[in-house]
Amino acid sequence: MTEYPTSIGTSDADKISLLGQDLAADLMGKVGFGELAFWLVSQRRPEAGELRLFESVLVALADHGFTPTAIAARLTWLSAPDSIQGALAAGLLGGGSRFLGVTEDTGRFLAGVLGSTPHPSTVDGWDELARTAITDRRAAGKFVPGLGHPVHKQQDPRTPVIIRIAREAGAYGPHLALFEAIGRVAPEILGRALPLNGAGVCGAALADLGLPVELLRGFALLARAAGLLGQLAEEMRRPIANDIYLEVDRNARYVAD
Known about the structure:
Elements: E1 9-11, E2 16-18, E3 21-22, H1 23-27, H2 33-42, H3 48-61, H4 68-79, H5 84-93, H6 102-114, H7 123-139, H8 158-168, H9 174-190, H10 198-208, H11 216-237, H12 241-250
Antiparallel strand pairs: 1-2, 2-3
Helix pairs in contact: 3-8, 3-10, 3-11, 4-5, 4-11, 4-12, 5-11, 6-9, 6-10, 6-11, 7-9, 8-10, 9-10
């Protein structure tokens, strides 16, 4: 008989097992959803400080107002009110290099820099590593992920909070250290000050928690799913999607290319 091994979950007529635990007896009512999400991916139960930082990241990424992802979800629900899954999917599919995907892009960038050199032991050493990383990135014709925000021009209010919580939780590691150094030295290289954005600092924090950088966008989408549910609930209470549709449709003007 063919077997398909899994360390996630199985079930039979009498029992559901998840992560080697009895779902009903050992997990329900005893394990929070954030803790379970961390556990499912890492295959280890997070420590209290790690869980606090992880859930802070989820809260930070849950919603950011009328972003394209929220508008897409609302407009899809307007078109197909019988398909809440379609509306959620539409919003999640918009998680890319400009919105939400920055979390993974930043984590990958930082991990790539850290994986190719010994970690500095001083602030000056981190700053020098950051200078090299930014210079190399620019030479390759690429933006430095995690720098700048379309709304928060001076400081993203989420960034210092995530850094503080990481320190308090004992989870501040090399990814956050390099990210902070990038924020310090970027103005002298780029010729202008750009804030470290919340999506980027969340990517650095998740990487310091030891979570796979290939999955960091997934955590951003997990958080945003909650925000999109809130957006859709508000759309049902106070609809605006039809106004958005009519505003664009009634003001469309043909122009020849």
